[in-house]
Design brief:
alpha/beta, six-stranded mixed β-sheet, binds zinc ion, 740 residues, five-stranded antiparallel β-sheet
């Protein structure tokens, strides 16, 4: 069995240790030797040997190439012969234990050192099956062996694995050879892999901990901000960021100082140094000993320098000033389409932030710039450095595409879907398109909302997910049922541009407190811009309600609105599923067709001539009246029907009742209605009869009581002529009487 060992040809066994120590720096050569006792005795007693191989013959740490043999050094007596030989027996690999020159010899006291008692001084050679060739492996094995051998006490010399160690002057006083086992497979040392994992974990932990010593404070004196604007030679103000090299400017530090001889006269230059870094040199500042080292020089603010190097590499890294998170702005790539779009990522640790910097080749800054990081749909800028603002909102590609020259109309399938969702009501569709166009053009939050009504499958999901979401941006549109919406109220308002609240159930006319809480939140959501936001265990802060709303209800009578409501536009109920329309091209096909039309639809909205007068208004249509009527008492409805001349309502509410005289009463009431409909006046007597039949069946009220109820709802009763007779009554303008 052969092994490799470095042998020094300059070593002279006949000379003293002191002599040889000067000779053994050079002359090292690696030799292929056989593992047998005689050979080893000779090598350890007659030669200068090392388990390390060197690149040249020069024995230094930097010249280390590999380790072929481990060299244990037990010099302080803690490891005795018995212990070591016992250990050697248990090793599963070959080894040779021998004694050093000073084994069991008392060291002579020199230079005030104490006399050391005689003790065992032992050496071990352990040949390796293959060499350790990297510094990392070497360091690992060194740490592992120190950890294992010196577990209870410092048996082995801590320097035993130093790369320039060598052995000489050994003796055969102790000579214990093992040659019938394997060479040591060091990668398979028991416990090594666990040790390695623990080492790596500790290292990471250490890297995360801040070091004890205080960091130096960053000097921001004598710096300038690149968003400052300065006067240039042309007399105009220009932003420093936009200036070319060697531009003459008015010094931003002293330019307008009235103590200058000629205040306002150009006195400085903006330029770049040999490393491409911008600086300002001002002669006035230099003469007064101002600027860096009093030389009139000003450098770019470290924050601007950091941001510029980030932006040059097309990303940014900053701290959210309000919430404290580190955030990176990067070009995210869609794994499906490969499309690149700007977006933000919260960093999970400072380490991740450092990795992002390293990946982009930007050095760690002394501090991360702080920005207000809010969702502001109404602010069109992405980053405003001078206001320390970064907009969470990133416009969709549809909104960024340059407008075409030709006018654009409503595209076919998107138009059809909208028409179906709004149950074909032309007024509500026109009002909705006007409002949506204004939202896209001004990006201002809506103060009114649209309520969609209908059964499942009417296409509102299609409309929201396939039109509105991609148009505004998927990250800023939210579809929620009412329950979760109420529970995530603040964050929902703060972090969305548009929310569709499904399963809406709200009675705006109810006095019950459970209804009141929901109604109050919906009112705030729709109409209020500013929010006071409370976070769990943290200070409250003022947020902004960016969100516009759509509501949808499947059930009849789920939403009840008062007569004077100014928040809701109501689309009529749609009872038909969209896939049963004759134009329906199929589920996947409609998505493909709408997708193709989206850009066109966005152009249509962006160029739509908005009727500004109807923004913020709600339209009073039949669908809304139905919802409002739910809130009214029967009496209120009755009076409203008379006021509006709504004979259809009257007919619908004159219904036959069961019981004695039921049929007679029904016929009387119906005949009475037919009779009074003939004239544009109606008497108080007849009104009271109809009122009692419809509103107070079985418990009729007196004429005077009816008069009191009617006051405030109907005009005053005055003498009027009806069919030739003068009676107390009012004028009624019956709707559409000829058609009825
Ligand atoms: Zn100056």
């Amino acid at each position: 069995m052969n092994f490799k060992l470095s042998v020094c040809k300059n070593y002279d066994p006949t000379k003293t240790k002191a002599y040889n120590n000067n000779k053994v720096a050079y002359g090292w050569e690696v030799q292929d030797l056989s593992w047998n006792r005689n050979k080893l005795v000779k090598l350890t007693t007659q030669c200068g040997i090392s388990g390390n191989e060197f690149i040249t013959g020069h024995k230094t740490k930097d010249n280390w190439k590999a380790t072929h043999v481990l060299m244990y050094d037990f010099d302080n007596g803690l490891m005795t012969i018995d212990m070591l030989v016992d250990l050697q027996k248990r090793w599963t690999y070959n080894s040779y234990v021998f004694s050093s020159q000073n084994h069991q010899r008392q060291k002579i006291a020199t230079g005030g050192k104490k006399v050391e008692a005689a003790h065992d001084r032992l050496r071990v050679l352990i040949p390796l099956a293959y060499p350790i060739e990297t510094a990392a492996d070497h360091a690992l094995i060194e740490a592992f062996l120190l950890h294992t051998i010196n577990k209870d006490s410092e048996y082995i010399d801590k320097t035993f694995m130093h790369m320039h160690r060598y052995f000489a002057h050994g003796t055969a006083e102790v000579s214990s050879f093992v040659g019938n086992k394997e060479m040591l497979d060091w990668k398979m040392l028991p416990g090594l892999s666990t040790f390695k994992q623990k080492l790596e974990k500790d290292k990471e932990k250490k890297a995360n901990e801040t070091r004890g010593r205080k960091k130096k404070v960053v000097n921001i004196n004598n710096t300038f901000r690149i968003h400052w604007s300065v006067k240039t030679k042309s007399g105009k103000k220009q932003v420093l960021k936009d200036l070319k090299e060697k531009t003459e400017i008015l010094c931003p530090n002293c330019g307008d100082d009235p103590n200058r001889g000629t205040p306002g006269a150009i006195n400085a230059v903006f330029d770049f140094n040999e490393y491409g870094k911008a600086f300002i040199y001002c002669s006035s500042c230099e003469s007064r000993g101002a600027g860096v080292s009093g030389k009139g020089i000003y450098n770019m603010h470290p924050e601007d320098r950091f941001i510029q190097s980030c932006l040059e590499r097309d990303f940014i890294l900053f701290r959210d000033a309000e919430h404290g998170d580190l955030v990176s702005g990067v070009h995210k790539i869609d794994p499906m389409s490969g499309e690149r779009s700007w977006g933000y990522r919260k960093m999970y640790s400072v380490l991740q932030a450092y990795e992002v910097l390293a990946m982009n080749g930007v050095p760690k800054p002394d501090f991360f710039p702080h920005f207000n990081f809010d969702l502001r749909f109404d602010i069109k800028d992405t980053i405003t450095f001078e206001r320390q603002f970064i907009n969470k909102y990133v416009p969709s590609k549809y909104l960024q595409e340059p407008l075409p020259k030709k006018a654009v109309g409503m595209p076919k399938y998107i138009g059809k879907v909208l028409n179906h969702v709004m149950a074909g009501d032309p007024d509500i569709i026109k009002h909705y398109v006007n409002d949506l166009a204004d939202l896209i053009q001004t990006r201002r939050k809506r103060r009114t909302a649209f309520l969609l009504q209908g059964t499942e499958g009417t296409g509102k999901g299609l409309w929201f997910n396939r039109v509105l979401k991609p148009l505004i941006g998927r990250d800023y549109c939210n579809e929620m049922d009412q329950g979760p919406f109420i529970n995530n109220f603040n964050s929902s308002l703060e972090n969305n541009v548009l929310t569709l609240v499904n399963e809406c159930r709200a009675n705006f006319t109810s006095n019950r407190s459970a209804d009141g809480a929901i109604v109050e939140k919906i009112k705030i959501a729709v109409s209020d811009s500013d929010l006071e936001i409370e976070r769990k265990g943290k200070d409250r802060y003022n947020g902004k309600n960016n969100c516009s709303f759509m509501f949808a209800s499947n059930r009849l009578k789920a939403v009840v609105l008062p007569l004077g409501d100014r928040r809701f536009n109501v689309a009529p109920r749609q009872e038909n599923r969209i896939e049963f329309t004759d134009w329906w091209p199929g589920g996947n096909e409609i998505e493909r067709l709408m997708d193709k039309e989206l850009q066109e639809f966005t152009f249509f909205l962006r160029t739509y001539k908005v009727d500004k007068k109807s923004i913020g208004m709600v339209i009073q249509n039949r669908a809304k009246e139905i919802i409002q009527s739910l809130s009214m008492t029967n009496a209120e409805e009755f009076f409203l029907a008379i006021k509006n001349g709504d004979h259809v309502w009257m007919e619908e509410n004159i219904q036959e009742r069961s019981g004695y005289r039921g049929e007679d009463d029904f016929l009387d009431a119906r005949n009475l209605l037919t009779e009074v409909k003939k004239y544009d006046k109606i008497s108080k007597v007849n009104l009271c009869k109809l009122y009692n039949y419809i509103v107070h069946p079985g418990k009729p009220v007196t004429m005077s009581s009816f008069g009191k109820s009617a006051a405030g709802h109907l005009p005053e009763f005055k003498p009027v002529r009806i069919n030739g007779r003068v009676e107390r009554g009012i004028t009624v303008d019956w709707q559409d009487i000829s058609a009825a």
